[in-house]
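fyi for ur records
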Amino acid sequence: MKLSRFAIIFLGGLFLTACSSNKLIKAYEGDALTKDKVATLTAGENIVLLSVNGKTVPDYLLTNISVNYGLVPGDNTLVFQYESVWAKAKLGQDSPRSEAVASEPRQLLVNVSAGDRLSFRYPQAGNIREAKALASTFEAEVVNQKGTVLGRSSDVVVEQIQVADTSSSAGGSNVSVASLDNGLPAIEAMKLLWEKTSAEDKKTFLKWAFQ
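which gave:
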């Protein structure tokens, strides 16, 4: 069953709605805590949070919005990267209309308290040339609501990143394109397929969908 372009754009809209809401994205294990029991980390424009304490977090792949994450008090290891997308002149019918720029993942350790409001602080780029230079040597800090620096980025210890297991989705069944033809509602199958798709493939998919 071939997915319609409308369905793809609708799916992208669902992710945009989820990202732009004021609801905190849970970035810790266990039961959800109230806002006064966690610290709020804002991953602003061009910052993609990849994992917290070795566990991957939801990847919305929209680099021009802010996403708020809830962190439990204490030490939190954050893995993140810089990403930006720049418009480019279309040279042919099949040539891409945009170009993505991304840094290598960076790691940062912060100790937070309940009620803290945290954000990333990093240089900004005004054009794609500056963005590529920024990404090649990207560094960032996390500051609290008073502007106090709580941590600075460093190289990632790759072994600490554990990819979340999505095999338990839909009762542990393997999800494939065939799910769209086996009675599962299209939007539910698309969500499950999205969870099992690599970050790189997601970026390519969204660039195609919104061209």
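Residues 23-167 form one domain. thats all i got for now
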